[in-house]
Amino acid sequence: MNKNAPVNARIRLAIAQWPDDAPRGAVTTFCAEHGITRKTFYAILARARDEGQAAVLEPRSRRPKTSPTRLSEDLKQDTLKVRAALESSGLDHGPISVHDKMIALGMHAPSPASLARIFRERNVARSEPAKKPRASYRRFVYPAPNACWQLDATEYVLTGGRKCVIFQLQDDHSRLAVASHVASGETSEAAMAVVKKGIEAHGVPQRLLTDNGAALNPSRRGVEGQLVTYVTSLGVKAITGKPYKPTTQGKNERFHQTLFRWLDKQPLAATHQELQEMVDRFDLVYNTERPHQGLPGRITPQQSWDATAVAEAPRPKPLPVLPEPQASGPAAMCQVAATVHMVSDQASAPVNWRLFVPEAWDDTCADTNEHAEAVAARRVKARIPDYVRNRPKWELALEMINELAHWGRTCPVAVADAGYGDNALFRLEPTRRSIPWAMAVKASTSAYPADAIPELAERTSPKGRPSVPRYRQDPASLAELAGAAGRGQLRQVTWRHGTKTGRGNRAAAMKSRFLALRVRPASRHKNPVAHRTRLPRTENRARPLPLRGTVLPGPPPPRHPRVSGPPVHHQETPCHPKSSRGSLSLYRVLKELQRILIRQLARCPYCQHAPPT
Fold first, then answer.
1. CB neighbours of 414 closer than 8 A, spacing ≥ 6?
2. Do residues 446 and 476 touch, judged by C-beta distance below 8 A?
């Protein structure tokens, strides 16, 4: 019998009834037969003589009479209140954060382990045993501030479904938020703007760590970006992480999570200026008030920056002379249009068009309030409608194709240049609608050979996420795949007859050599709203906004939900954000609410016409 196991009730009863005139050696024999010690035997016998035979049938409770370290109910309620206050402020509200906040407020703080147990008991937190522990990652930290900066961008949704990008620049050693910048898109100009802002405030770093994005550091693609050229001229070493391994920039990725947790508790921003002010306030709280759990002693990033001497700035190089943009031409005068043409072998005619508004003509993309007011005045003078905003040309093109389909004009074949074909989302739309297409792309576009097949990785442990099929080889550019095919695969094709004839070309034939090559696209583009964009909370909106599609955020033409015909914006695709109800998509919920609104108002809120019966 295990020495810690309770003694059976039958054995206890036999000991309690033990005769006083038992022969010598009977106790030893009894203990050996039942697997108990003589000490246990005489303890039970003494208790039976003191308390009676009925008292020894159950073992005594091992619970202590007093528990001085037991947490009171009032203290548990105080911990829950502190956690709720941190959560409502948009700050981290885990056990460690609550522990530090209670100490800062002069309150008695239980240990982080006790706090975690309290939160699980009250169902305000959940246990995640399958989560990868922090100790499993290979940590790295540079020895001094300005030894390395990390730069990354993340998308944000403004009111009306308009998307923008937030650049965040962070010091690797101290985790200090060096600078932040709100822009309309992830461009090299915006990346250079945030780096210049950080250099002006904190000096020149020795290294700049980014991902392999085209706007940040496309060196692995064989291209030198504008940001790399600029920082290299200052003596800064531009480095990148391994492709598809975001843990290298894990500090900045976690920085995004903290930012969006804080923005979720703020009113939804309507313009870039409002969002920039909110991000600046967050940087101040992050640097000076919020203890950082990744720093020794859980100090603030500003304290960590001040505790260590700043690394010596690198030796600068001559700045490259970049051509200044000329304020002339159709783009500067807002005279650029995106058009859809119907063409034949003899002629072409435009059938639909949209005005393309550059960023310089959109006051919501301005950097300062003064600039925004000037742009707004210029828009009023040019009589540009308020709903016409800066949007990518490929979105305008898809909107026009949808409108033509509503008019009963189907597209037999879609042809576009590289300005549209380089966008993977634009290429996917005709494919999804069964429209044949031929689009130009850049030679640097990545792809896999036709014989490449995604394979499942062999799992070494039953824990963790299930593996998904992946290509086990790196993609190559189209130029490399075409070169590997060889010159022998080229075929001369007459693709058009022009008007200029020559001595050896009486028919004015336009000839060129072509290569037909079957490949598998390697673009990793996904729906930005469903896969990458964090949708902030939508409280405190000034007014209800019209329903808009996730791919085309512009105002839709008037449509009745029950009118038969091809859909325009709200396409049912797996890319729509899913609600917590599983198969019930957010799009279906919004569409049903739209139908209820039309039934209540007895008219369409867009065109003010009565719905069809």
1. 401, 430, 435, 436, 437, 438, 439
2. yes
Helix (H) or strand (E) holding 285: helix 272-288
How many alpha carbons fall within 13 Å on the CB side of residue 318?
A: 3
519-521 sheet: strands from edge to edge: 476-477, 446-449, 519-521
User: What CA–CA distance (Å, rounded) separates 205 from 146?
Assistant: 4
- 207: β partners: 237
Cα 280 from Cα 259, distance rounded (Å): 11
* Rounded distance between C-alpha atoms, residue 240 and residue 294, angstroms: 22
- Would you state the pLDDT for residue 543? 39
The residue extents of the domains of the chain are 9-57, 73-127, 138-307, 334-357+387-443, 540-613
Cβ-contact 227, 191 below 8 angstroms? yes
pLDDT in tens, 163-212: 899 999 999 999 999 999 999 889 999 999 999 999 999 999 999 999 98
Mark out the alpha helices in 452-579 (DSSP H runs). 478-485
Q: Give bridge partners of residue 168 from the DSSP assignment.
A: 152, 180
CA angle centred on 465, ends 460 and 467, rounded to 5°: 65
Model pTM? 0.50
Whether the CB-CB separation of 291 and 298 falls below 8 Å is answered with yes
Q: Are 89 and 265 in contact (CB under 8 A)?
A: yes
Could you report the per-residue pLDDT of 541-558, keeping only the tens digit for each? 343 334 333 333 444 444
Q: Which of 234-243, 438-447, 462-471, 525-534 is most confident?
A: 234-243
Say which CATH superfamily domain 138-307 falls into: Ribonuclease H-like superfamily/Ribonuclease H (3.30.420.10)
Which one, of 352, 394, 384, lies nearest residue 552 by Cα?
394
The closest alpha carbon to 28, from 45, 14, 19, 41, belongs to: 41
Cα(389)–Cα(288) distance, integer angstroms: 38
Runs of H (alpha helix) within 136-225? 188-202
What are the Cα distances from residue 431, in Å, to 13, 55, 243, 414, 437? 84, 82, 28, 10, 8
Neighbouring-strand partners of residue 59? none
